[in-house]
């Protein structure tokens, strides 16, 4: 997989990201949606996401396959608060379902860490949906659980999940 930081947000790139986002969501990925979604469901959220990137507030990392198609991404999101300027939250971390299980998610996270260090950041934060076992993915990459919001995520009536907060110290 080839990585690119802050690629130009062309219409084609945005379309590929939205399509991958739908594929990841529909395969059960925890990237902001629950159950089956359409591109129309994702587009309003994606537009807000792209706005922060286009404004230069947030940074986009994209992974491409050997044919140049988008197969992975993450966003280093600013807190938009000067007292938190020394760290970022990783958001919309995803690898296309057909590429999972090959170590590409770990490669994506390591590249995100490299960018964070290059930016001079002191830490990276990520939130994960409890009950999915995602902590087991992030822990070997150096992330540690620093808190939980019990029942903060309502994935369905009667199915509330913890929001697990994890931290990677870059200092």
Uncertain runs are none
In the sheet with the most strands, the strands line up as 1-2-3-4-5-7-6
Shape: globular
Q: Roughly what percent helix?
A: 25-40%
Strand content: 25-35%
From N to C, what is the helix and strand string? EHHEEEHEHEE
Structural class: alpha+beta
User: Kindly state the mean pLDDT as a whole number?
Assistant: 94
Compute the number of strand runs: 7
The rounded Rg comes to 15 Å
Distance between the termini: 28 Å
Determine the number of helices (DSSP H or I, runs of at least 4 residues). Answer: 4
What kind of assembly state do the chains in view correspond to?
single chain
Instruction: Please describe the biggest sheet, giving its number of strands, its sense, and whether it closes into a barrel.
Output: 7 strands, mixed
Structure report:
- Residues 1-171 form the N-acetyltransferase domain.
- It comes from Catellatospora methionotrophica.
- The chain is α+β, with helices and mostly antiparallel strands and 171 residues long.
- It is 30% helix and 34% strand.
- The protein has four helices and seven strands, in the order E-H-H-E-E-E-H-E-H-E-E.
- The protein has helices at 11-26, 39-54, 104-118, 135-138, and strands at residues 2-5, 59-64, 70-77, 87-95, 123-129, 144-156, 159-169.
- It has a seven-stranded mixed sheet with strand order 1-2-3-4-5-7-6.
- The longest helix has 16 residues, at 11-26.
- The protein is globular, with a radius of gyration of 15 Å.
- The chain starts with a strand and ends with a strand.
């Amino acid at each position: 997989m080839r990585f690119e930081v802050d690629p130009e947000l062309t219409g084609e790139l945005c379309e590929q990201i939205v399509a991958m986002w739908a594929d990841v969501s529909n395969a059960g990925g925890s990237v902001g949606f629950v159950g089956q979604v359409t591109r129309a469901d994702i587009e309003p959220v994606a537009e807000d996401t792209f706005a922060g990137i286009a404004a230069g507030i947030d940074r986009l990392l994209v992974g491409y396959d050997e044919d140049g198609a988008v197969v992975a991404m993450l966003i280093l999101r600013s807190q938009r608060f000067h007292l938190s300027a020394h760290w970022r939250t990783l958001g919309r971390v995803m690898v296309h379902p057909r590429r999972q299980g090959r170590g590409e998610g770990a490669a994506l996270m390591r590249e995100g860490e490299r960018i964070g260090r290059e930016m001079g950041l002191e830490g990276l934060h990520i939130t994960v949906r409890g009950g999915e076992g995602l902590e087991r993915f992030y822990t070997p990459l150096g992330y540690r659980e620093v808190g939980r919001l019990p029942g903060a995520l309502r994935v369905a009536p009667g199915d509330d999940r913890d929001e697990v907060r994890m931290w990677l110290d870059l200092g």
